[in-house]
Amino acid sequence: MTEAVARGHGGANPGLRSALPILTVLLAIVAIWYLAAVWMNAPWVRDQAARADTVLTSGELIRQTLTLERPVLPAPHQVAAGLWEGVAGQKITSKRSLVWHGWVTLSATLAGFAIGTAAGIGLAVGIVHNRAMDQSVMPWAVASQTVPILAIAPMVIVVFASMGITGLLPKAIIAAWLSFFPVLVGMVKGLRTPDAMQLDLMHSWNASRARQFWNLRLPSSLPYLFASLKVAIAAALVGTIVGELPAGATAGLGARLLSGSYYGQTVQIWSALFAAAILAAALVMLIGAVERLTLRRMGMAR
Amino acid sequence: MTAIEARDVSLTFQTADGPVHALKDVSLTIDRGDFVSFIGPSGCGKTTFLRAIAALETPTAGTLAVAGMTPDQARRRRAYGYVFQAPGLYPWRTIAGNVSLPLEIMGFSRADRMQRIARVLDLVDLSSFGGKYPWQLSGGMQQRASIARALAFDADILLMDEPFGALDEIVRDRLNEALLDLWKKTGKTIGFVTHSIPEAVYLSTRIVVMSPRPGRITRVIDSPLPPERPLEIRDTPEFIALAQQVREGLREGHSYD
């Protein structure tokens, strides 16, 4: 341990050296969070003390602000405990398990991401190859994103429910609504990266449009595709969670957020929030790994 | 035999600032096996003329025949290989994979492809680099690979648009030598665009001097130099005299108006 630290200070260990700034920032955030928790919860604690006619020492005040059952802002250790309780403290089939709720959200996210990606790629291919689509589709795609998802989501849920469809599909549609757009924009840009010279070269070989697509446009677009997939999967997760809110859903991280706010369970809200953030980070990292693997196999990573 | 025949070819681009006469009444006959260089200041239409031969541009007047066909027919028959100023290799394909691409598009069998790739990589002296990716090669080697790609499908005509323009002079000298050698071995008809007088004089059997506004041919010079050309030939009186002729031709058509 001491040896590792010594080497880290000597600058010989690159892992430690890059971890140091990250840790510093993390510590700073946690410190600010604690200060904010004390500051935001203090009025209520003081209020209680005044009502009970007791005078609090500042040490006692701080201790109480960080251990409230329903704090305005829960302290980091409370959220960590809530998260741990939700993940490891329950059977994963329990309705109080964050793993179970996470899975409900994840499955809809992945389904929506798949639909959104397919739609985004399909529309991009159409836009690049068809003049009419080039001029007509993009404005609608942009318009679709300017409508607040909070307004769209309840309509989608209601319309599907009226057809007797509830659960995964309506949420996946909302997720797809958000995630197709970055894929569309990234793929249109990516499919158009081949320059005039590369297209002339293809033309000089009398290559068909299909050849041009498979041998030139598609491989050129892959770095752009992966960049937009990372945005899209995070957007799909947001869409799913928003889709879980309006129906007063009983399952999913969105439902945890909602029930937490019904009952003033701030720790539960923050735990669900962090569970969602961790899920999003894991998904983005997963795509990053697939990206590295693919580009390396294509010989494009150096 | 005639490989390329242009008669009164004109090409006008319609731009926002009005029409630009890239080519005006250009007539030229290129025989099979000729090495023809096009030289002139920028805007003289040398690249446009080469692109018109390749059916990458369409003349607005006049007739242009490539191997007895229209340029577009010739393109469809894959009558020419084209080398651009930049190598334009696909970063996701190895050197062999890049050379293989036009062959795949043209439907050559796998065995045939392998054999052709080996042959052309050997021609450009890149035999041991087939498995490397473009970024692992120097600029000069990449350009050699792009020449190999243009040679792979055995077109009779090789069109080269300032292929060595982006390279330093030392590499350029070596590639010029290699190109001459390759031309002798393959007997192809080569159209070569350049803005370097020594390069044009060293390589060509004929030098076409062009001038701008409107793009036209001002002089066609037949080279008296022997086919055997070591680099030292550039210090001989014949070479210097020829270079002077080209320079005069360029000055003749030059206008700063």
Automatic annotation (TrEMBL), chain B:
InterPro entries: AAA+_ATPase (IPR003593), ABC_transporter-like_ATP-bd (IPR003439), ABC_transporter-like_CS (IPR017871), ABC_transporter_ATP-bind (IPR050166), P-loop_NTPase (IPR027417). Residues 4-233 form the ABC transporter domain. Keywords: ATP-binding, Nucleotide-binding, Transport. PROSITE patterns: ABC_TRANSPORTER_1 (PS00211), ABC_TRANSPORTER_2 (PS50893). GO terms for molecular function: ATP binding. Belongs to the ABC transporter superfamily. This is ABC transporter ATP-binding protein.
